[in-house]
Structure to design on (420 residues):
């Protein structure tokens, strides 16, 4: 029902949408800034800035006090948990906030490590950001064996047969990314979760790169844990972790003794970034309002969020098709990842390239001088760049679009690359 209700039925004015983001009016060297650095962090709408500022002015206090500003802080934190629960499709107490996805994943891996025995196995992938590799490799100290699933280098998609060959009765954890932050591949995480559960393993999904581009339903995925970072989807620098209630109550987190043992408090170590968490609600509300414009009959915040993502995916597919088609026409350009325009649903609008005669760093610098912001290097997906054979020569140039990008900006980038 939610999917049908979320179907878009109105035209979104992209220029009006862009006007909500102050950074999009910035210029550099006389050029309008083009933010194709979105996989490293998106820009934020004014409402997020206002929410953070308002918290510091009107509610700046620690929690659970006997006075007004503390009460307001408690209410703001509760509201943010509810907002993220609507975004991920779970209950508010199953949401944990922290410094970032990496820190939350290390905290969770340490807790899961308490249950591991010598010879237990963990599966990661060679396609992932190291934040979804290093926390699990750290458990080798407890005697766990960590395996890495290969990917097909021709299109940078996971080798699911290799995954299947590594699953067995000793597999306790499968950690996989929802989408690759380096080349945009969207993984079949629902299928992977089912495969892992067949052997009794827990499933952890890194949704950091996917969250700006696609709706997430943790109940439908049937994953055990899922993490994301709100600064990747138009919010402040905050990490969010979903965990099934039974796991989050059963596992023993590392925490201080006075901290409550209820959910989500037992996992939220120390004093949180309250002003940032106030901004989390604002960024979720931004998405919901976008969905209400796309589908005026949306019946709830969750349905409105689904409608927003339906419109965003349609818009981003159009931009990705324009970008990929143009890139493939440039002589001397090497393209990494899915290039088939009939398979856009299998990737995000994040693409990576190299150009003959130019290092990725040089390309990024020269584009930056024109006000076009892109990333170069390995983006912490070092296993991927090593497998592609480019790690020792500067990695790749990453071009990452968000829903506030325009076709005119894509054309600017293509003209700049052709000029090289």
């Amino acid at each position: 029902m939610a999917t049908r209700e979320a179907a878009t039925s109105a035209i979104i004015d992209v220029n009006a949408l862009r006007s909500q983001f102050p950074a999009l009016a910035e210029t550099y060297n006389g050029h309008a800034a083009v933010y194709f650095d979105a996989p490293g962090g998106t820009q934020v709408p004014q409402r997020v800035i206002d929410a953070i500022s308002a918290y510091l002015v009107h509610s700046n206090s620690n929690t659970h006090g006997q006075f007004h500003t503390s009460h307001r802080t408690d209410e703001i934190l509760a509201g943010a948990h509810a907002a993220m629960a609507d975004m991920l499709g779970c209950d508010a107490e199953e949401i944990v906030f922290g410094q970032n996805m990496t820190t939350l994943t290390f905290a969770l891996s340490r807790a899961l490590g308490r249950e591991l025995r010598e010879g237990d196995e963990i599966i990661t992938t060679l396609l992932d950001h190291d934040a979804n590799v290093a926390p699990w490799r750290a458990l080798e100290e407890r005697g766990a064996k960590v395996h890495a699933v290969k990917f097909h280098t021709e299109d940078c998609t996971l080798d699911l047969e290799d995954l299947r060959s590594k699953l067995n009765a000793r597999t306790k954890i499968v950690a996989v990314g929802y989408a690759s932050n380096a080349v945009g591949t969207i993984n079949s995480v629902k299928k992977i979760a089912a495969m892992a559960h067949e052997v009794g393993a827990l499933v952890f999904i890194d949704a950091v790169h996917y969250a700006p581009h696609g709706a997430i339903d943790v109940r439908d995925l049937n994953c055990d844990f899922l993490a994301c970072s709100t600064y990747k989807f138009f919010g402040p620098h905050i990490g969010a972790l979903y965990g099934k209630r039974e796991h989050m109550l059963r596992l023993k987190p590392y925490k201080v003794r006075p901290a409550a043992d209820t959910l989500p408090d037992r996992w939220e170590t120390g004093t949180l970034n309250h002003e940032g968490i106030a901004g989390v609600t604002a960024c979720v509300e931004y998405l919901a309002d976008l969905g209400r414009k796309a589908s005026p009959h949306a019946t709830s915040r969750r349905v409105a969020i689904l409608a927003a993502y339906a419109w965003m995916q349609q818009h981003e597919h159009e931009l990705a098709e324009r970008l990929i088609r143009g890139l493939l026409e440039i002589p001397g350009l090497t393209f990494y990842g899915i290039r088939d325009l009939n398979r856009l649903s299998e990737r995000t609008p994040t693409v990576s390239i190299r150009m003959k005669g130019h290092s990725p760093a040089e390309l990024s610098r020269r584009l930056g001088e024109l006000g076009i912001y892109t990333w170069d290097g390995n983006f912490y997906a070092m296993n991927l760049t090593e497998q592609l054979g480019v790690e020792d020569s500067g990695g790749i140039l990453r071009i990452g679009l968000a829903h506030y990008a325009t076709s005119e900006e894509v054309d600017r980038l293509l003209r700049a690359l052709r000029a090289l």
